[in-house]
Amino acid sequence: MWERYDASGGATDIAVFDPTTMALLKDISIPSNIALTDNIRAVAADQSGNVYLCGLHQPFVFKLDGNGVLLSQGQTGFVYMFSINIDEAGRIIIAEEDGHVIVTEPTLTNFSSFPAVNQTGFSSAWAMFVSFARTVPAPIQPGPSPAPTPVFTPTPAPTHNILVSSGSPSVISGSGPPATNTLWESTRLAGRRSRKAP
Fold first, then answer.
1. Across-strand partners of 14?
2. 179-195 burial by CB neighbour count: b if 16+ within 10 A, else e?
3. For residue range 38-75, what is the model confidence (pLDDT) as tens digits?
């Protein structure tokens, strides 16, 4: 599933793709009263095809069916929400830019939250994205034993010259002479000689 954005940056449509072939299956229009009054930034879908949306301007999570019909909405108590995720058990988590994570369920009636950062209260200060962690399953059969690490015969370290490149720091600030790029070649005992690069 993917959000399609209009010129102002908020989503107006949800494009549904087949995850295997990446073929476009259908386009779901977000109800205009939601798309126009909120700046939708995040979308998640459950196993039944219901879609959950949240955005920047309203403290609501919206639940749509697979055709874009509004089923319900719940008030989170937060605005500037821009990441949402749902797991197979129906738990929903949302991140908002003040540093909080919001937790709810498909009925959108019970909400709880917790700060995910040390300092909250700075509006739009945190770029957070949320996901559910899952345990990696154990392998079905033990893997093959690793090959023994070969033992190498130590050899004397070769002596090489040292190359150092430098450029005029004034180029970064935008003032001073034109760029002078220099490649320095030095040996351990001898002095250095320079070759200017174009």
1. 3, 28
2. eeeeeeeeeeeeeeeee
3. 888 889 999 899 999 998 888 999 999 999 999 999 99
Residue 53's alpha-carbon distances to 24, 43, 115, in angstroms, are 20, 5, 21
For residue 165, the tally of other CB atoms under 10 A from its CB is 9
How far apart CA 131 and CA 134 sit, in angstroms, is: 10
**How far apart are alpha carbons 44 and 46 in whole angstroms?**
7
Phi, psi for 160 (deg, rounded to 5): -125, 155
Helices and strands per DSSP (H, E), number in the chain = 2, 14
Adjacency order of strands within the sheet including 51-55: 40-45, 51-55, 60-64, 70-75
Contact 90, 97 (CB under 8 A): no
Nearest to 3 by CA among 17, 21, 15, 19: 15
| pLDDT tens per residue, range 4-32 | 444 355 678 888 888 889 899 988 888 88
Q: Is the dihedral of CA 91, 37, 55, 35 positive or negative?
A: positive
Query: Are the CB atoms for 185 and 161 separated by under 8 Å?
Result: yes
**DSSP three-state, residue 33:** helix
CA distance 20 to 23: 8
pLDDT in tens, 122-162: 555 667 788 887 766 777 777 677 777 777 776 665 554 55
